[in-house]
Amino acid sequence: MSQRPILYYLGPEGTFTHQAALQAQAGLETALGRAPRLAAVDRASSIIERVDQGRGWGILAWENNVEGTVVPNLDGLINAPRTAGFARLGLDITFDAFVRPDHGVLTQVSAHPHGLAQCRAFSDAMGLEEVPATSNAAACRDLGPQQVGLGPALCGRLYGLDRYRAGVQDFQGARTDFLLLAPRGQAVELSQAWARAQRGGNTASDTCAYESILALIPLQTGPGVLAGLLDRMRDAGLNMTAFMSRPIKGQDGAYSFIATVDSAPWEPSLHTLLEDLAGRAVWVKTLAVDARMPRPDPPVDQWMLPVGGLVAGRSSAGEPTAISKNEELLWPTM
């Protein structure tokens, strides 16, 4: 790692991933004493391919608090033989509306389809026709004189645009976590360097908490297999913060399971668990290890719940009748 590495991100310039890459660039300079060069690519899968080939590092959108895990990026990392994640960083997702300095009457709004969906109240209020673009940054880069472009704040400076209005997204508080990637042989060293930088250079081993993302595939399927896997993780005393399944493509009934746990693979509890699982006909792979970010633990208030359902013997509408309880739980009526 003596030469200045490249950090690949999903382009063009001005995407949210570019904004996260700039943040990562500054963090890596603090952690390593040198900043990587940034390079845009046109597909997220190309980022993993380049890292897998040892051509540099990468950054991918990993999870957001609106839509959850970015599944194609997860699948790509599961199947990448020589790539692992070593750090995570969070980015608040806010959309600004931009126009050209020489704009005329505004009749259209352009952004990636997801961006258009997240800013629909603004577009509807202005009576703008939606024009999908390949990315929010591309919409701003190619903006027409009758168009409003939606994108991150840095698009205005990059493409010489005027900010028409700030923060036009429908949902306030949206946030995306990004995962930094490196060749597997570099991941542990980079994760520890990033962690030291996050805790202000303190080298004491007990001052940083890590989390690991694991991929687990039981080689035997059938009743009780998943319960047994979860029992092993519980008995190891690990705090699991996320768990999901992904189908093994084209194979009915076969799944990989993705678990996020509060530990590093070299720490005794997780080290022992991984050895145990590998010896019990379970394919195991550590996808990422990173310094755990502060996590809120808010109570789930009534207004956060979906319509319907039961909790503590009550429905969202109040005390349920026998009929409504049967309907919510799909119990047969007597």
Entry keywords:
334 residues; alpha+beta; D-Maltodextrin-Binding Protein, domain 2; Alpha-Beta Plaits; 6-stranded mixed beta sheet; 5-stranded mixed beta sheet; 11 helices; 17 strands; 31% helix; globular; Preph_deHydtase
Topology record:
Blueprint: E1 6-10, H1 16-32, E2 37-41, H2 44-52, E3 57-64, E4 68-69, H3 71-78, E5 83-92, E6 96-99, E7 108-111, H4 113-118, H5 120-126, E8 129-132, H6 136-141, E9 147-151, H7 154-159, E10 162-165, E11 175-183, H8 184-198, E12 210-218, H9 225-235, E13 240-247, E14 255-261, H10 268-278, E15 282-291, E16 310-311, E17 314-315, H11 322-329
Parallel strand pairs: 1-2, 1-3, 7-8, 7-9
Antiparallel strand pairs: 3-4, 3-11, 5-11, 6-9, 6-10, 12-14, 12-15, 13-14, 16-17
Helix pairs in contact: 1-8
- What coarse outline follows from CA principal-axis ratios? globular
How much helical structure, as a percent, in the residues?
25-40%
- Strand count: 17
- Uncertain segments are none
Q: Which class best fits the helix and strand makeup?
A: alpha+beta
CATH architectural group of the largest domain: 3-Layer(aba) Sandwich
Pathway: Amino-acid biosynthesis; L-phenylalanine biosynthesis; phenylpyruvate from prephenate: step 1/1
Catalytic activity: prephenate + H(+) = 3-phenylpyruvate + CO2 + H2O
Domain Prephenate dehydratase: 6-183
Protein name: prephenate dehydratase
